[in-house]
Amino acid sequence: MTSQADLHSRVAAYEAGRAVPYRLPAAPVSCYVTMRDGCRIAVDAWLPEGAAEGARFPALLLFTPYFRRFKLRPGSDAVPNPNTAKFSDYFVPRGYAVVVVDVRGTGASFGTRDGFRSPAERLDSAEIADWAVAQDWSNGVLGATGISYLGAASDFLASTGHPAVKAIAPLFSVWDTYADNYFPGGMQCSSLTRIYDDLMKGLDLDQRSYLKDYKYYAHPDYQGPQPVDADADGSLAAAAVAEHQGNFRQTDFMADLAYREEGLPYDPDYSSAAISPYAYAAGIPADVAVLSVSGWLDGAGYANGAIARFLTLDRNPRHLVLGPWDHGARIDVSPWRESEDPGFPLLGCVLRFFDTYLEGAETGLAGEPPVSYYALHEEAWQDAADWPPQPGIRSLHPDAAGGLGATASEGVARYQCVPQTGTGSETRYERIAGMDSRNYYCDWQGRSDAMLSWDSAPVAEETRIAGHPLLTLSAAFDAPDAGLFAYLTEIEADGTERYITEGVLRALFRQEAEPPETIRVAWPFRSFRRGSALPLPAGELQTIRIPLLPTAWTLSKGSRLRLSIAGADADHFKKVPHGRMPLISVDLAGTRLDLPMAGAEGRA
């Protein structure tokens, strides 16, 4: 299995030769679809214009809590569907119907949201699929896609086993909502819940003053959710918004999910599993093709979600793409980018996937390696047969002089955790909450000086790291809990510091576990259940393995690699513990950093 060109070139060539035989209509067909419990769900169907009478098309379903369309001021030229316009604008002229749905409790749909991605939405998606295949424009074949929330909804739809669903493309979306997003490493990402809650108050409750801080929804011409076609006076949409006043609040809801798979106090069946695709993975038929896409700075762990989905659904036709992107590929995150515009034809990549598995077209995709990833600083796409792409491991060991070398050394390094330690506001965490991030870690210079750090010798040649770095930390603590933050930085020959990646773990959850069949991973797994939460014994050495988020990064000749440890990220995470922060005493002889590198010797 070989490829003659990189992924970008393959997709661009396919896209350039792909016919665009239809037009996008000025507006979709819009109506309510009534669910099993009487709840009315607002649906837009964008249909190819210029087709022969009686033409039928495959449909792509998108389920969004961010408004299928906004109502606009008269005469406005604003984009009415900022969350999904790129999909309807692109796929409809290429012969796909695009169906966009306000999930229950949002937009013009009735009902309330009883939690983040409620199980009721999953059941709704199958009923919407029934409706879609019954339309006279449908050829009976369905796919699903979307970014973030919408991507996970694609997983949920497929997991219903609906026979019309043949392919899904979850883009920049979680597999495990707990570990991939809100509690990475068991640490509550408090900034996300706060910022995201304000966004949803602006949308769900139609409190538009909140939306001014979110670029994609801040247009002054947005006037709440667009009513369906039959709701001429908007009274139904207004009644739906009135029902949304009972929606959950994100800050309160997530605080009740501090332990993975532990139910809400009033509903033991409603847990982090209930809002996570992995919990329904067994329901995804083996013939459903899956395209998982993420980026190196995609939030708190969305790349882990894409990889876990790829590894778990190994019976299915599957593809994994990891690029130089933030959440949703709004920005090329590479420090060496030519432009902040990613440039990569992402929608063309998704088109080629759906053409392959929904249209049965010969696109070349089926014969290519299933994994493609972008190596930063090389600025080049690479292919791989599986994940991780480089099974070799090179180990580096800290020493008492602040070095990071090939051999272990004796000694103890002490670090007093400081609650004010932070990473700023230009990080991987802002964009997942809807903020308009543009320059990632541009203020990283000097931040690791406030941490416990070790530097390697300058590398003799360009060296690519590709996979999950892993820190094995041997340390004692004088407090019963700790937030552990590990960072990798490239220190270039001229002293420029560049953030590479990070790992987060609450020490309370240091105990490892066997991953279930529904969450297959290539890094140490934790259950994050209440029973696994063990206070730290004062002064006793603990061996704690901290996986860092995946990356593909090439160190320049002459650069040094810096490993840093901190006890807080005050800009994004809840303080742990609540009171006095721990003194960490690192046993240097038992501590090492394992790096996935091409040509390195494997570790037993």
SS-derived structural category = alpha/beta
- The domain count comes to 2
Per the CATH scheme, the topology name of the largest domain is Rossmann fold
> What is the average of the pLDDT values?
95
Named at the architecture level, the CATH assignment of the largest domain is 3-Layer(aba) Sandwich
Number of strands: 25
User: What's the multimeric state?
Assistant: single chain
Helicity range? 10-25%
Uncertain stretches of 5 or more adjacent residues: none
Q: How far apart lie the N and C ends?
A: 29 Å
Would you state the CATH class of the largest domain?
Answer: Alpha Beta
> How many strands, which pairing sense, and closed or not: the largest β-sheet?
11 strands, mixed
Large-scale geometry:
globular
**CATH homologous superfamily title of the largest domain:** Alpha/Beta hydrolase fold, catalytic domain
Radius of gyration: 24 Å
